[in-house]
């Protein structure tokens, strides 16, 4: 995989859109990514990594933090990468999730993370995670493997070089991702602790079960139980003691069950006799109560029968009431007719009264309308000349409106004239200032030119010798030599001064032209105002013109208001004349209509009086036939008679029901009394007091027997449960102890805790295997860079088997045959060693993945510690060796010497306000 083109937008320190044409760097060799610290050199690799895998290279660089703080709100955060892989081109567009400015309205909205991958044939893969998966499948490496192969962070490997086993252990965990082995170690350690605790808990449970064994206080086995509780017996012996206790309690339980059966039989017989005796007593009590109730009911029965006889006699009165009701009901239609006539009379009389009042009202209204009509006719005579002055007043209003508009226009022009005069005065003042500046700089320029000429003469005089000809005049005698001044302006200074004078002259001309143009504008405006003033009959000097205009404007507005007011009054008179002219005929018609309605009402009154008289005669005839004064009184009498008839019927029914109920009670009580007498006649005789005493005694015996068997059963349950729990837990303890033995050994082995053995943890062992292979590959580079002097050696064992080891690193010096700590190397030697480790890791990961083609590599920093005479060239040669074939290596560094050695460069420049930007040098 080789990047061809990278485009970064609002990404990291890059505020704008940066385009890096990486294909111009060539297909192999070295190129330099340079710039000051924090400019964004490593961000270029971050952008490539983000485009491919959706996250930056560093673990502390979250994709949500990639948006540039320098970028404008409308600049999108995204990366575009075009790369070549196995002869085919691919293009990736990817953006992180970030807050962007809304396209419509104010505020911000969340832009979702998205990506797409375009193949050479034009097909696409879309989706953030889908593109990442496609890249992993295409390149054959994960992000972590890509970083290990393509990014040699020399600073990290310097830490690795100088770290002890503990520190190197942490570094390797991040490099080789051996966390799973550490988790396995912790899980085994936790499992060991769990097994150990389980054994202790099981032993504790057995003790609790033993303490739960129950035994009678006087039992000889109590001594053995105490020994078991104190831990003096083996588990097998404890189980045997419990079995003996169970055997004894089972025998005692069988014995008690037989005794309880006999007691229950005796108890049931006594209970049965006692129940029969109590039933006889209840029967005797019931017989006594029944006789007493019968004695009380016989007098009541007599009273109820007498009341029934009286109610039967009252039934005759009920028949009389019904006859009266029928008689009154035959007269009810006459009552209705009488009341209907009464209602009609009431309505007719009210109508008659209303008609009389209407006649009075209509006569009054007719008289009022006649007077109003006369008044309107008088007013109409006075308004006959309305509207004669309307046209004249309207013409006056038009004249005033035109005059006011002209006067206000003149006033606006006077205001504009004042403003333009101020502009003219400002232009004059500007011209005066520039003119003075020009005069001053011109004089300064003349003085400088004179000084320059004098200086040139002085310089020439200084070179003249008596007898030698002057190059200007040819004289060989020089009696009066020009003196060289201390300060002689240069020709360049003179040119600058003349240029400044010329610039100032042009500026003076411009300001003069502007002032002249403004003067002409003011004069033109004055002429326009004079012409406009003549149109409105104003001919005054300019200084008084505005006052005259204001006075005339006020006068015309007053005249206009007066004309408007008079015109409005004239319109009101016209409207009033038209209104009255329309009202008079209407009033005359209404007056005549009222007279006609009065005549009609008088006819109606005569007819109504005749109708009322006829109805009153008919009402008097009906009243003579009726018993009551009205229908309501007749209806009330009917209701009264009906109530009396219903009451008589109800009293009869209640009396009859009462006699029937008491007869039934006497019948039932008599039957109950006979039954009780028959039962007592054939009943067995019992001594109830002796039975109750015997019942209490046997009940106490039964209670004591039950308590005893309950205690026995409780001991049986507890001991059976204890026997079962002890037996099961003992088996569990054996299994737990067996498991703890092998888990403990496995945990101690994995965690490097075996006594008298090397303290190497499983994770450290795995890391050591990786480390060994990396060191072998690193030494191929280191021996070449150091001319065969140094070789890295891994210390595999600790001297005392007490501390953790397995990742210690030393260096063998073939020049003096010694082996010492890598910390003793010089700065340049340490750089070469750490670079060798970085390259060794890259080689190892590449070999382990297999079949991948990554034609690009980055080396990040660390070159500043190398001396330029010896170690830097060797490191440079080693890096050049990486470019064999078609590999392109980018060195991220700000070392100046590398700029002269490496032609192809990506220069990153940092702008503290506008963000960083990139320049490509090829």
Q: Any key phrases for this structure?
A:
six-stranded antiparallel β-sheet; coiled coil; 922 residues; 17 strands; ATP hydrolysis activity; hydrolase; Rad50/SbcC_AAA; six-stranded mixed β-sheet
Strand order of the largest sheet: 2-1-4-5-8-9
Task: Based on Cα principal axes, name the global outline.
Answer: flat
The secondary structure category is alpha+beta
Q: Give the termini separation.
A: 21 Å
Under CATH, the topology of one domain can be stated as Rossmann fold
**Mind telling me the CATH superfamily name of one domain?**
P-loop containing nucleotide triphosphate hydrolases
Question: Into which percentage range does the β-strand content fall?
Answer: 5-15%
Rounded average pLDDT? 82
Query: What about the largest sheet?
Result: 6 strands, antiparallel
Uncertain runs: none
CATH hierarchy: architecture of one domain: 3-Layer(aba) Sandwich
Count the strands?
17
Taking Cα atoms only, what radius of gyration do you get, to the nearest Å?
66 Å
Specify the CATH class of one domain.
Alpha Beta
- Tally of DSSP helical segments: 19
Helical content, roughly? 55-70%
Structure description:
This protein has helices spanning 41-53, 128-139, 143-150, 154-162, 165-176, 179-211, 222-229, 235-313, 315-330, 332-382, 390-463, 491-535, 542-623, 631-682, 688-750, 762-785, 827-849, 871-882, 896-901, and strands spanning 2-11, 14-20, 29-35, 78-85, 88-95, 98-101, 108-111, 114-118, 124-126, 151-153, 790-795, 808-813, 818-821, 856-860, 888-892, 905-909, 917-921. A hairpin with a 2-residue loop joins strand 4 and strand 5 (88-95). The mean pLDDT is 82. The protein is flat. The longest helix has 82 residues, at 542-623. The strands form four sheets. A six-stranded antiparallel beta sheet has the order 2-1-4-5-8-9, covered by helices on one side. Strands 10-14-15-3-16-17 form a six-stranded mixed beta sheet, sandwiched between helices. It is α+β, with helices and mostly antiparallel strands. The protein is built from 19 helices and 17 strands. The chain has a domain at 2-140 and 852-921: P-loop containing nucleotide triphosphate hydrolases (Rossmann fold, 3-Layer(aba) Sandwich). Helix 4 packs across helix 17 and helix 8 packs across helix 14. Residues 239-451, 577-739 form a coiled coil.
